[in-house]
Design the sequence.
DNA sequence: TAGTGTGAATTTCTTCACAGCG
DNA sequence: CGCTGTGAAGAAATTCACACTA
């Protein structure tokens, strides 16, 4: 009884009224990109059907997703591109910058550091970090590589809240642990390992081999049905 | 009437009986990696609970996922690590190699080409391709960079069926079109654009900015609830 | 007895379909 | 009239819970 009451109360308090489903959150950045494209082409207004085409999804999904943000469309017209873009940016927390710390400057880490696309989009590289003392002190894309033991100070000094792990797999967990200790609350993990972190830390992973293996599954399946074709069923 | 009959027939023929849900397919590579880890540590048998811990998912989910492959576990014991690994590899089509063509050798493309992890896991780099004539002819990780106009011959000669797009966004769609024309059926896209391809071509995308923006959403949300804390509800 | 395999319940996500508004 | 916003239906994914068995 008591538990039920408490649970219900918490649900109300923790703005459960405005909780955006995870699947929708994951699509907001996609819409955002489409809106930016529209702005470049000086389109002022967009319908859910058009936006859906651009994003490669269903129009009903677009409307449902956007409805979680509020009623920002105009019936009979569509959405004001500029205004909608602002609202999505606000919802995603993109009205401020989120400095990023990159740990691990092998091939991938260096590529990430050199890739300008982050800074533009509100994720400036705050620091580069490696454990290899021969790399520490050298520069990549204008940033001096710092040693992993300096992680705490670096995070503190730069107010970084997002960490990118681009290390070899065997050290990724220990890097994650250090990041969490240093106060990082969001991690983007490129190492092919499952990281264990506290509940209040968000993790997203990018795993290239995993993606290729998924492609392999569907490719193989299609190959098999092509080699032994079904022919016309209704023939 | 006729339509219903045909539909039902096709469902039976196209091994609809054994269709593995997309969400499960996407987790198989994860289990595979865990099994490989277990093999390295010479563990012979694993329970769904243990595997779930390693993969960071629910144990019931592991059992359900694996049950789609068949009944490869032993009640009261668990799964034979080696055998299960083989079955997953077979299901994913990993008993053969899938040569990969990388198009676009900027920072990211070069990092991918230099990353050894692909070849090991059954995805050898078959060819590197770029449009920049100053790059064509140079070598990256032992491979000579070929020109995009040679894509058809290269795909034919190497039997590549998977293409990786690591080009700037503006040319990604035209590269995808060329890949499809050349016979590529699976594409891993790193460019931040939504690609349009025929239904029989599989696409997976990796979008760094998008991942960071998703992290930003949850970070912001948590920041807000920390700044204005709720306090103990049951207090 | 420990742990799989799986129907059934539950939750989450997607899509439909249409009332209602500009 | 055209298009949004949204209940309701439907589909997919997850989780529960337990019969069953090596």
Sequence:
């Amino acid at each position: 009884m008591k538990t039920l009451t408490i649970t219900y109360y918490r649900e109300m308090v923790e703005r459960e009224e405005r909780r955006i489903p995870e699947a929708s959150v994951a699509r907001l950045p996609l819409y955002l990109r489409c809106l930016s494209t529209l702005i470049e082409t000086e389109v002022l207004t967009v319908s859910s059907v058009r936006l859906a085409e651009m994003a490669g999804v269903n129009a009903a999904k677009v409307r449902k997703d956007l409805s979680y943000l509020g009623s920002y469309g105009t019936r009979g017209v569509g959405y004001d591109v500029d205004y909608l873009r602002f609202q999505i940016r606000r919802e995603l927390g993109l009205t401020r910058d989120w400095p990023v710390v990159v740990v691990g400057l092998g091939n991938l880490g260096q590529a990430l550091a050199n890739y300008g696309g982050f800074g533009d989009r509100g994720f400036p590289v705050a620091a580069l970090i490696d454990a290899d003392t021969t790399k520490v002190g050298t520069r990549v894309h204008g940033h001096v590589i710092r040693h992993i033991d300096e992680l705490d100070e670096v995070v503190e000094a730069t107010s970084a809240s997002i960490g990118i792990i681009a290390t070899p797999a065997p050290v990724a967990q220990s890097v994650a642990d250090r990041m969490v200790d240093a106060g990082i609350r969001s991690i983007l993990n490129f190492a092919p390992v499952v990281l264990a972190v506290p509940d209040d830390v968000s993790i997203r992973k990018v795993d290239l081999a995993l993606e290729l293996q998924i492609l392999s599954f569907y490719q193989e399946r299609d190959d098999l049905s092509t080699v032994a074709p079904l022919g016309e069923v209704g023939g």
The CA atoms of residues 11 and 17 of chain A lie 8 Å apart.
